[in-house]
Structures are given as C-alpha cells and as structure tokens.
Amino acid sequence: MKEELIISGRMNPGIDPFLHIWHWHIPVYLFLGGLAAGILFFAALYTIMGREKEMPTAVKWATFVVPVALVLGLMALFFDLKHQMFFWRLYTTVRIESPMSWGAWVLMFITPLSMLWAASYIKEAIPDWKWKYKFMDQIMDLVDKYRKALAWAMLALAVILGIYTGILLSAFNARPLWNTSLLGLLFLVSGMSTGAAVIMWMSKDHRERKIMSMIDLVLIIVEMFFITHLFMGFMASTAVQIEAAELFLGGEFTVSFWVFVVILGLIFPAILEILELRGYKIPVAVPALLILFGGLAFRVIMVEAGQLTRYLY
Amino acid sequence: MRYAMAIDTRKCVGCSDCVVACQTENNVPIGYCRDWITETVDGSYPNVEIELRTERCNHCDNAPCVRCCPTGASHIVEGGVVLVTPNKCIGCGACIESCPYDARYSHPEGYVDKCTFCNHRVVKGEQPACVSVCPTKCMYFGDLDDPNSDVAKALRNRKYKALAPEAGTKPQIFYML
Description:
The complex is a heterodimer.
Chain A: E1 2-6, H1 25-48, H2 56-59, H3 65-80, H4 99-119, H5 122-125, H6 134-145, H7 147-170, H8 182-202, H9 206-235, H10 239-246, H11 254-277, H12 285-306
Chain B: E1 3-8, H1 17-25, E2 36-44, E3 47-55, H2 64-68, E4 74-77, E5 81-84, H3 94-98, E6 105-106, E7 112-113, H4 119-122, H5 129-133, E8 139-143, H6 150-156, E9 160-161, E10 173-176
Parallel strand pairs in B: 1-10
Antiparallel strand pairs in B: 1-8, 2-3, 4-5, 6-7, 9-10
C-alpha cells in the first residue's frame, strides 16, 4: 500500500484539504454567459438569414434577457475576485494564451453590443417609448442601418463566448476532469440549448416555438452524444482522468450528475418536447425550466467536481 | 541561467525547519505556508519504505499559472523564477486552479502568493531561506546551466525524479532518490 501525507500540516485556506477556490459565482456566471451566448447566437443567425418576421422572439424579444444575464454574470465574476480593486488590470493587457483574458475582452464588446441590440427593439416592444436624448435615436438609426454587419459580429462573439465558458475550465491541465478539449464544445452546445429554451418559453408564436423546440431537441441529442464521448475519452485516458470519471461512475457525484443533469435536465425535457411535437399539450414552461435547471446543475457539478480532481496526494 | 533545486530524499528527516524559515523570512500570514513536507509510505511492516520530501512551487519551465494569468501578474524573471506582482493580480484564482502542485494560495490581502525561490535573497548571492537553514543539508540550490553549481553537482551522480512530470509542466525541483 502506498500512502502520501503532508506531515508539516499544510492547511492553506481554499487549498486544503481539497481545492475549493471557486465557489458558486463561477458556475452561475458560466450558466448566464452560456445562456446569453445562446440567445445572441439565434438572434444573429435569424437576422442574417433574414427571418426576423417569422422569428420575432429569437431576433427581438429574447435579447432583452441578455444584458440582464450578462450584467448579473459579470457581477458574480466581480464578487468572485479576491483583489477586486485591481479588476481593471484585465483591461490593461491582452493575453492571447489566457482564456480568462479572452473572456474579459469578449464581454467588453458583447455586453454593450447586446444592450444596443435590445435597445434598438424597445420602440417595437413599448410603442410610446421616447428616448430622453436625441443622440439615442441617432444611434438606433445606425444600429438599424448596419444591423446585418452587427449580426455577423454578434454571431462570432456569441460563439467565442459560448466556447470560452468551457475552455476556461478545459485549459487547466492540473484538473483532469476539466482537461478535455470536448468541454468547449459541450459548454457551447449546452449554452445554446439553454438559450433556445428561453426563446421557446418566451415565444407566443406557435410556429416559432415549434422551430425552437426542434432545434433544442437536436442540441440535447448532440449534448448527450458529447457526454458519452466525454466519459469514453476519460476511461481511455490516463489514471488521473479515469479517477475523475469515477467520481461520476459510482463516486460522490454519480446521483447528482445522472439524476439532475442527464435525466431531469436532458432526457426528460427531450421526451416532453417529442410529445409536444407529436401534438400532445404540454405547458412550454416545463421543458424550458428543466433545461435551464439542467444547464445550471451541469456547471455547478463540473466546477465542484473538477476541483476535487488532481495529480498528487 | 536556470535556477533549480535538488532535494536529497535520503537526507531529509522531515523536521519542517524549511517551512518555518520560509514563514519567517517571507512574512507568510499565519495559517499559510509556501513550502511543506510530504511523507510517502510504501508497503507495510516489515517491508516499508518511507520517503520524505520538502515541496514548494516547482518554478516550472512550462508554467501553466503564467499561461492562464489574464493580467500578466504571474510572470517569469531571470533564471526561470515564477513570481506574482501583487498590484497586477486581480485574485481570480485561475493560477491556483492551474497548478498541479497546489503551490499557490490566496493571500488574506487578496492577491495570490507563493514561493519566490527567495528571489530577494538570491539576487544578493544568498541561498533561499529554506536551503540556508536545513540542518541535514539535504537541499541544493543554484543554476542548472552552471556545471559547478551546487544543484548541478548534486544531481550529477544520483538518480532523481520530479513531481507529476506527466502534468507537462517541466518542474524544476528535483528529488534525489
């Protein structure tokens, strides 16, 4: 038997007995960021395709959620910082190698862009809306004029934001559970699925809801395919990654992951959506809420479990 | 120049003198430590092998903490020493997550802190505090590129290992077996 112990009594807060430096803020932010990326992706996509008329919720109304989600997410990120008064240092450097630097800069561009996008539709939502300052009308005219170009920028930024929420974790080779290149895509697909769920939930148009429901179903199937591959990859990898996978295959995260994420967050809403597409009457809030809950649970579990996986001791 | 450390696991008795010397020299906050002692027990009585090691930041050649730092607070100075600039650090914790040795911690003042190889002493030509106090003289520090340095001479005729080299970080603390 081989046993390894720290005998000088290292008890650094947040590091020992097991790493727990990231708390609820990070998964909440990853969830809100993924959700925002999902909604903006569909808004940009349907604008580029010229289908604003058929998909009004995707292009217009759901985007009102995005600035709120991003600002709440940014607040969560800020509260997670331990040297908060120096947060502006993020914007005095561009670090190509650092996912967090990418994230900070993408958020710097996508947050104001999402605000502009939503603001440009506020007059349609509230007919007697009047901007207090005249220059706001001029800015809105500009947004209308260059909407297609903005949509392309938003599409690219949304994909980067969605992938980045996964790469933030996967770039850490020290945490075997996170250290897989699948994570970026998995988080992107999961974020798009939560975004589609919000659009589906908000939509009053039967056809739009059906389209989003079908898209969501495809995304759920892709996500399950990725999750299967994630575990296949771990089981065929090194000892530390096999140990990481075992946390979910009999270890302490088995029940929470398979019940909350896979069954309640993926399989159950997928079945409900199939039933709805077949003509059964199902309140749209049920699958939408389940998908959102599953998305959040997935991120909480990944962040918590990842910090338990390690190379030494 | 490439600063490195070699630790003779046959001489180390696990007295924790290096830990205390570091805490004193570097004003490490109470309850924290930048270096620590590990004991590995392999087998069961009467066939037991014990290995004692003093561990710290490995000042990796391929340092993941420097790579993931979003502000450049974690950086590498001459000799490959990995340092943190407190007033550039935002305390995001990315480097703490990225370290396979868990050698970093969040200082109570907010920034991230870790072993500096006692850079403030080394630039004056002194040894790191931990090396200078070791009662069994099991630690060797110096420039790996210089064949006459303590560390190069110590490693020359001995077998040695590094910790978790499979993490790909190219650690620069070597344990003589």
